[in-house]
Structures are given as C-alpha cells and as structure tokens.
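Example record

One chain of 129 residues, shown exactly as stored in the release files.
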Amino acid sequence: MIDHISVEASDLAKSAAFYESVLAPLGLAKLVDRSPGTVGFGKRYPEFWLNARPGVAAQPESTGIHICLRGPSDAAVSAFHAAALAAGGKDAGAPGPRQAAFTTYFGAFIFDPDGNKIEAVCFPKKLEE
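Predicted structure tokens for this chain:
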C-alpha cells in the first residue's frame, strides 16, 4: 500500500551512514545518493528516503512519529537493533516477541539521530502466506 517514505535529516551524511548500517540487515541498500540533498534506500527501488534539512531540531521522543519496516527474520530484526545502537541510535524497545492486533510478531524499536522512531518487524510465516 505504501510506496515510499521520507525522513528529514539534520546532517544527511551522518544519517546516511547510520541508515546504511541499520537497514542492511533488513535487505535495504543505498541506491540513490544525491548529496547534499537526498539519499534513497531500498531493495529494487528507493523505498526509504532521507532528505537534508540542515539546522532542523531533533524530534522529541514523544511526537508519535513511528515508521515500521519489515525484516526477513527475527535475526535480521535483532541485527537491525544492534546496528542502530552501534551507530549511535537509541534503544526504544529491545528485540523480542510482541502482541499485535491479529498475531504475535518479533520486533525492535530505535530512535535515529534525529529522534525518528523506527521499528523493524518479522511476522510468522503463516501470516505472510
């Protein structure tokens, strides 16, 4: 349903390096680099964009901004979380099972350098079929 998303970055180079390591476990790579304005990540086409907004203040953690990305496995979700913390992100929910409206899933939450809350999830195979 959603084709792509865009996230503002106060320091595009810093955020691009952060997301390059964080998105790799989820199978997304840097596909477009139009520095200093925008960088796009995806599998076959850019699905996750960073747009330079120099001088913009970081989002407060209470804004409700929440973007969720699908991972191929529980291990990939855990690697996403570990990569985020290693790259300077903040923990917003350790990897583990969670209850959703229709099923349980495996998820992890982080805050990026600009305060955006990013989640990675893996749903049971029976749900994806």
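Notes: The mean pLDDT is 91.
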